[in-house]
Amino acid sequence: MHSRQHDDEVQLYAFDMIELDGEDLRKLPLSMRKTNLERMLARRVDGIHLAPFETGEIGPELFRHACLMGLEGIVSKRVDRPYRAGPSKDWVKVKNREHPAMYRVRDARSRRP
């Protein structure tokens, strides 16, 4: 049984919504899915937040700030595209090469036979 002693320390950041009340939202463009998510989270419970997102040609500057903040990286997605699972030409993940997660990947690769 969970003691719920640390509930106030847990934060959930939602960044996309692919289903709502049994309705499949994957065919909608990201901009509409984000709007639906924002509406739903307007009446959210404590601890659940809308992940911040930016639009426009700000990728390099945003990535630089993400690295300065010690974040793992950023994901850029086209707002006019539907959801597709797995790698896609419509989104790109850019990783901070100085983040500890990168060292774990490098270490795991160096241990492979």
Structure explained in plain terms:
The protein has 113 residues and is α+β, with helices and mostly antiparallel strands. It folds into 2 domains: 53 residues, no CATH class; 58 residues, no CATH class. Helices cover 29% and strands 18% of the residues. It contains 3 helices and 6 strands; from the N terminus they run βββαβαββα. Strands 1-4 form a two-stranded parallel ribbon.
Strand order of the largest sheet: 1-4
Helix-residue proportion:
25-40%
- Please give the alpha-carbon distance between the first and last residues: 41 Å
Cα-atom Rg, whole angstroms? 17 Å
Please give the domain count. Answer: 2
Return the structural class.
alpha+beta
Give a count of the beta strands, DSSP E runs of length 2 or more. Answer: 6
* Helix count from the secondary structure assignment: 3
The dominant shape is globular
Q: Which stretches are poorly predicted, pLDDT < 50 over at least 5 residues?
A: none
Mean pLDDT: 84
Strand residues, percent: 15-25%
User: Topology as H/E string?
Assistant: EEEHEHEEH
Q: How would a crystallographer describe the biggest sheet?
A: 2 strands, parallel
